[in-house]
Amino acid sequence: MITAATADTVRELERRTMLDVGDEVLMQRAAAGLAAAVAAELRRCAGRLHGTAVTVLVGPGDNGGDALFAGARLAARGVAVRAVACLGRPHAAGLAALLAAGGRLEDLPDDGRLRGPVTLVVDGVLGIGGRPGLPEAVARLAAAVDDAGWPVVAVDLPSGIDADTGAAPGAAFRADRTVTFGVHKPGHLLEPARGRCGAVDLVDIGLQVTSDEDGGWLHGLEEDDLARAWPYPGPASDKYARGVVGLDAGSDEYPGAGVLATYGAVHAGAGMVRFLGADRPADLVRGLLPNVVFSPGRVQAHLLGSGWGDRPDGADAVAAALDTGLPAVVDADGLRFLPDHLPAGWLLTPHAGELARLLDRDRGWVTADPLRAVREAAARTGATVLLKGASQLVATPEHGWVGVAVPGPAWTAQAGSGDVLGGICATLLAAGLPAWQAALLGASVQAVTARHHPGPLPPHALAERLPETLGRLEARSRALGATR
Ligand SMILES: NC(=O)C1=CN([C@@H]2O[C@H](COP(=O)(O)OP(=O)(O)OC[C@H]3O[C@@H](n4cnc5c(N)ncnc54)[C@H](O)[C@@H]3O)[C@@H](O)[C@H]2O)[C@@H](O)CC1
Ligand SMILES: [K+]
Fold this sequence. Notes:
Blueprint (H helix, E strand, L loop, with lengths): L1 E3 L2 H15 L1 H24 L6 E6 L3 H14 L4 E6 L6 H9 L3 E4 L12 E5 L11 H13 L3 E4 L21 E5 L4 H4 L4 H4 L1 E5 L14 E3 L2 H7 L9 H4 L1 E5 L6 H13 L4 E4 L3 H10 L12 E4 L9 H10 L4 E4 L14 E4 L2 H8 L3 H6 L1 H12 L2 E4 L5 E4 L2 E6 L12 H14 L4 H18 L6 H6 L1 H14 L5
Parallel strand pairs: 2-3, 2-5, 3-4, 5-6, 6-7, 7-8, 9-17, 10-11, 10-12, 12-13, 13-14, 14-15
Antiparallel strand pairs: 1-9, 15-16, 16-17
This protein binds ligand NAX and potassium ion.
Cofactor: Mg(2+); K(+)
Protein name: Bifunctional NAD(P)H-hydrate repair enzyme
Subunit structure: Homotetramer.
């Protein structure tokens, strides 16, 4: 699990640690970790340190200070280090250390082009004190560095992104590797910033990170977390232990959604799937999946809404499912028929446009800060909310942190993926998982499957690969020594 904290929380953690160790120590720990990461990167790309040339781009704050102290350590090991002052006056003590170690300082070139030999660039322009975007001259430099194709190591964050929201509304650096300190920041987990970080290294600088249940924290699921937490059947499990899913998805107008949701539920391992939707999707499902049943009967979780279209009795269907007291996933068109308050055991699975409609906001308000949007949706509806998109976020009224699913390739952004995901999540609810966990595991298993089968695989074909993923995850969970 990757834990991320906002800039304010990081500053508070740093303040507390500094009371114990003093303020110089943290920056020296950060610089040591950064220098080690840059040295490893130099060895990877040049095979050596001696004789390589590192250009350190520095801003006016402590992010530049980290970069300058790291530059001093590299200069002492035979690397030719040139610092370029990109914004304001560089960190005084860091600059003095670099110059004393034999490094040089240069001004930002007017044309934004770096001179001299460059093996690698360190982006120490802005860190958690940075406002998103870059002044024009620095933006030109960032573009030139990108064009030149030099390897870039970012200090804490790629400069220009928003550390707390993951937004990148203006120019920003793009790194091959980002070296962060103490704890991850939301920008490392959330697109589009995440895509600018490259590989992220976490350097321990001695912060006492105790992520409590208060707001502001993110927990990013990793593939091993998924492997550990999936509810694999045990030797004594029967179909009811795995769970019976009741699907009311698709319509005579959009029958495919019912088929796709059923594919998701069946291939995610539901004990039994009851298809309770309209006639046309029911006929299609009957022809494709002989294990699905169509009569009413015992159900342990519902899926409602995918492909309903303009269904006149949508509100009645939602109300009837609520009356059962069972958990449910409400997807797509079903989101238009919600009562004012829902139980936290219900899971809503909107994409940005549907969430905007739900909250009576513009889509742009949601996409500008998806974290804020998903939190607000959970608080307003009382339900757990999975916001689908480039980063898949889960908020629940049950705790203050937001979960981030394992990221997947952009190929899964296609019509029908959401219907399959609804079926997967309903299966996990039927197996007895709380809604937040069903959402995180469901979104993650689909992403991990897509990672292993890159390319434009249609959603039903991807659903058919879920069993292969689950078999691999189950073997992994055994290797990890997970207990059932
Ligand atoms: N506080 C600490 O104890 C530690 C901090 N560390 C480093 O310190 C960094 C934070 O340092 P700072 O708080 O000094 O902040 P930054 O180094 O991010 O820079 C803030 C400065 O940049 C200016 N600025 C911000 N956005 C701008 C923009 N878009 N255009 C132009 N100027 C802009 C601000 O006015 C301010 O002067 C962290 O990211 C990390 O790298 C590490 O040394 C670890 C310990
Ligand atoms: K930076």
